[in-house]
Amino acid sequence: MLHDPAQLDLMFQALADPARRQMVDRLSRGPASVSQLAEPLAMSLSAVVQHLNLLEASGLVRTQKVGRVRTCQIEPKALRAAEHWINERRLVWERRLDRLGDFLAETKDKS
Amino acid sequence: MLHDPAQLDLMFQALADPARRQMVDRLSRGPASVSQLAEPLAMSLSAVVQHLNLLEASGLVRTQKVGRVRTCQIEPKALRAAEHWINERRLVWERRLDRLGDFLAETKDKS
DNA sequence: TTGACACTGAAGCATTTACTTAACTATTGC
DNA sequence: GCAATAGTTAAGTAAATGCTTCAGTGTCAA
Fold this sequence. Notes:
The structure is a homodimer. By secondary structure, chain A is of the alpha+beta class. Chain A contains five helices and three strands; from the N terminus they run H-H-E-H-H-E-E-H. Chain A has one domain (5-110): Arc Repressor Mutant, subunit A (Orthogonal Bundle). The relative contact order of chain A is 0.14. The model of chain A has no long low-confidence stretch (mean pLDDT 92). The structure holds a DNA duplex.
């Protein structure tokens, strides 16, 4: 379910926005309420809630409401999925380059 | 220069689109021309060029034109930068959880 | 040199995004 | 109870995005 392309789509889209990345950054240092998340951002609380909803839909952030405060925290599994996608592609490419290097070295030896 | 926030912004934004991720995926398996990139995509060549320009501006893809064909390839350094951003945040969070776990285990011992 | 090929660029258009404000609900502390 | 707090929801809007089509520009091959 974590490698579901639709979910991956939501995650990368969520990470595409600077404000949302700032929120993720803040949350990486520990849980926070909606207002705490909003504090450093130059936008209305409402806008922050909308960003937060996206982050939650993407699976990157999990929240729970106790009383009137909603506490947010990072979901490292989701982060790992995005990380994994990138890593995979990079490795495929780099292995390719290695093989190419080996091939060139070999043909050079034989010349 | 790779951790320049503006560049990071462009990279995540570039990765947010499914078509562009598909292009990166294709390129991870080896270089390709614009038409080759376009082939599996259900959109005009022109649209593909526009996506490609974004990918190039983000630093994720490098291209060079020889004669009339533009050959594209992945820039693994850029991929690594995006990967690194995510990894960093995830690790900070997970280290936090570990410390919290240690703390809880300790206080439990003392009870 | 002529026609096909591989793009490129500009203009236009529909949709989505990132906000805003304003009105509202549910908790909490006094 | 009542005001302040914390968040939610809806509606509206301006700008950005992801396309399209069409009219090019070079390059190559016969």
